[in-house]
Each structure stands twice: as C-alpha cells, then as structure tokens.
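Lecture 7 notes: from sequence to structure.
We start with the chain below.
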Amino acid sequence: MKNSILFIIGFSLFMSIECIFHFLHGEIAYSWIASGFMGGICLILVDQINDRWFGWDTQLIIQAIIGGIICTSIEFIVGTLDRVVLHLHMWDYSFIPFNYKGIICLPFSIAWCCLSIIAIFIGDAVRYYIFGEPPRPYYWIGNKKLEFKERP
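Predicted structure tokens for the same chain:
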C-alpha cells in the first residue's frame, strides 16, 4: 500500500514538474506518461535509500547523490528504450553541455540529486506520519542532526 501511494505521488509530482518546466521555457505545458512512470518508480526507489539500503546515519548529501544516480539510471534506460524501440523522442538533451547521446546530461543529473532530497523527505513522511512506521526520520547534514516532529 505504501509503495502504491508513493508511486501515485511520484507520478503526479514528476508530470507536474515537467509541465511547469516546459511552460516556463515558453512551450506548451506537456508531459509524457512514461515520465510519470519514471517519477513513481524513482520515488519508490529513492525512499529505500535510508529505509533499507544504507541506513539512517548516511549523510543526506550522500543519499541525494545516490538518488540522483538512481534517477539518472532510470532516465537512461527509458531514454534508450525510447530511442531504440519506441522512436517517440520524448526528450533531447543534445543541446545541453555534458550530455550522453542526448539521453542524459550532467545538469539534469544534478537536478535529480536535488529532487531526491525532496523525494527522501516525502517517502519518510508517508512512512512515518501516514503508516506510523518507526523510526522517526532524521538526517545528518555534516554534524547536525535534523529530525521530523513526533507524531501527534
């Protein structure tokens, strides 16, 4: 159930972010359904970083970098499938510096790292506040520990 909720949140947020991005660049606001699926899958996987894979004591910046790698990897897989099988050409980063075949690029990989921090917070908030799963989420930024508020 938790993963279904995370998928819906990730799906909706990613499509919304993509529409806003296109709108702000003077284009018609649109998104591909595949982008929504990528957003849902990314949120589920990024949520696992501190829940299962690396633990709560992993620095938040490291979690963000891991999340960025996860998102960039999914973007590469879907982008490659798009170019080789679907031929929809859903996105093209060839005009952006440090790109690989127009499918992935460094600036967006950095953006995925930043968005991964938000994804980590969302996943942990759903787990803790909606499903009541312990522990209370906390994050390390340097030697400073940030914690969620106790559940009511």
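Points to note: Residues 23 and 29 are 5 Å apart (CA to CA). Helices lie at 2-24, 33-53, 60-86, 106-130.
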